[in-house]
Design a protein that fits this description.
Length: 361
C-alpha cells in the first residue's frame, strides 16, 4: 500500500510539474531589461531590450522593439556610453529636450550614443523620428532558420535589398539546438541585415539552455507599437502558451483593438493541412486562443514551424505560415526558402499587401 501511495504521489508531482512547462520562461521575461551596478541602475520599459553588459561607464543593450524607453537612476552625474545592437538604422536618442544622433554607427543596426547622465532619475528614449507617425510601411516575416544558418545570409541580403523594409519579425526556431556556437554564428550572420531582427522562440530554442536567449536577446515574447500598428509575437515553444501569457496577451489585445494588430507565434493554432499534427498540443487551448484573437480584432496571424508557405484563415482572420528560413524545406512543394513582405497601412486601417519573396528559385 505504501509503495502504491508513493508511486501515486510521485506521479502526481511529476504531472503537476508539467502542467505549466513555460512558467519559468514567463517569469524570466519579467526580469529582462533590469540591471544595476553600484549607484547606477537601468530599467527598459516592458523589457523591450536585454541588458547584455553594464559598467559605470558603458551599457550594452539588444533591442527587441523599434522604440525604447529607458529609465536610468544614478546618484551622481556621469558620462556614459549606450551601445545598442539591433537598433533601427535612423534611431535618435532623446534625454530631456535634447535629441542626438549616434556618436558612431559601425553598422546600420549598431548604434553608439555618448551622453551626459544627470544625477537622479532620467528617461532616455531611443527611436527613429517617425516611429509614431501613422503611415504605411513594410516589414518582413520569416521563421525556421535552424540548420540553414550557414546560408541564411542569402535571405538577409535579399531582405536588405528590399526598398523600405523597416524590420524583420521572426516566428522562432532561429537555431537548431540552442548551443552557444549556433548563437555565435547567428550573431555573425545577422550582420548581413541592414534592419533589426525581432523574434520570439520556437521549440528548437528549448533543446538546450533557454537562458542563453534571455542573456543575448531578452524576452521570448514581445509586444510593441510602430507607426500605429501593434505587434504581439508570443512564446509557444511547447505548442502552448503559459496561462500568464494569455493574461498579458489579453492586455495587449485590449490596448490595440482600435488599431491594426498583428499576432505571431511559432506553432500554428491548428494544422491547416491536418496530416502532420503541427498545431497546438491542445485543441481546446487553440480554440480559446482563437476566440481571444477574434475578440481582440486581430487583423493578421503569422506562424512558423511548418517549413513551407500556407495561406488560410483562422475564424475569419487572415493567417500565413512562413517557415522558409531554410531548415529542411517541405519536399516537392516548389516553395523552398522564402520570406513574406507585408505592408500595413494604419491610415487605411488594413493590411494593403502580403507578398512572397523566394530565394534561389
Amino acid at each position: 500500500m505504501n509503495r502504491i501511495l508513493l508511486t501515486t504521489a510521485a506521479g502526481l508531482l511529476l504531472a503537476s510539474s508539467c502542467v505549466r512547462p513555460a512558467e519559468e520562461r514567463s517569469k524570466l521575461d519579467q526580469e529582462v531589461g533590469k540591471a544595476s551596478l553600484d549607484d547606477l541602475s537601468i530599467e527598459v520599459e516592458n523589457g523591450q531590450a536585454a541588458v547584455q553588459r553594464i559598467s559605470t561607464e558603458r551599457i550594452t543593450l539588444w533591442a527587441q522593439a523599434p522604440a525604447l524607453q529607458v529609465k536610468f537612476s544614478s546618484e551622481s552625474a556621469r558620462d556614459i556610453t549606450i551601445e545598442l545592437f539591433n537598433c533601427m538604422p535612423t534611431a535618435e536618442l532623446q534625454i530631456g529636450q535634447a535629441v542626438q544622433s549616434p556618436t558612431s554607427q559601425p553598422r546600420p543596426t549598431h548604434c553608439i550614443f555618448d551622453i551626459g547622465l544627470p544625477a537622479g532619475e532620467s528617461l532616455v528614449s531611443i527611436a527613429p523620428p517617425d516611429w509614431q507617425s501613422e503611415e504605411s510601411f513594410l516589414f518582413a516575416d520569416m521563421g525556421d532558420i535552424q540548420t540553414a544558418m550557414d546560408s541564411v545570409d542569402e535571405i538577409f541580403d535579399a531582405i536588405s535589398a528590399e526598398p523600405g523594409v523597416r524590420f524583420v519579425m521572426s516566428t522562432g526556431d532561429v537555431v537548431e539546438t540552442g548551443a552557444p556556437e549556433e548563437y555565435e554564428l547567428f550573431l555573425e550572420k545577422v550582420t548581413h541585415l541592414d534592419v533589426p531582427f525581432f523574434s520570439t522562440i520556437g521549440n528548437h530554442e528549448l533543446t538546450e539552455d533557454i537562458t542563453r536567449w534571455h542573456d543575448l536577446f531578452g524576452t521570448l515574447s514581445t509586444h510593441f507599437r510602430f507607426k500605429g500598428v501593434d505587434f504581439s509575437y508570443v512564446d509557444s515553444g511547447n505548442a502552448s502558451l503559459d496561462p500568464s501569457l494569455h493574461s498579458r496577451l489579453d492586455r495587449w489585445l485590449d490596448e490595440g483593438k482600435d488599431r491594426i494588430h498583428i499576432f505571431g507565434t511559432h506553432y500554428p493554432l491548428f494544422d491547416p493541412v491536418g496530416v502532420r499534427n503541427a498545431g497546438f498540443r491542445s485543441r481546446s487551448e487553440a480554440s480559446k486562443l482563437l476566440v481571444q484573437l477574434a475578440r481582440g480584432q486581430v487583423d493578421l496571424t503569422l506562424y512558423g514551424h511548418v517549413h513551407s508557405l500556407y495561406k488560410f484563415e483562422n475564424a475569419g482572420i487572415p493567417a500565413f505560415i512562413s517557415g522558409g528560413g531554410g531548415a529542411l524545406p517541405e519536399r516537392f512543394d516548389g516553395i523552398d526558402r522564402h520570406f513574406l513582405l507585408i505592408n500595413p497601412d494604419p491610415a487605411e486601417g488594413r493590411i494593403v499587401s502580403i507578398e512572397t519573396r523566394r530565394i534561389g528559385n
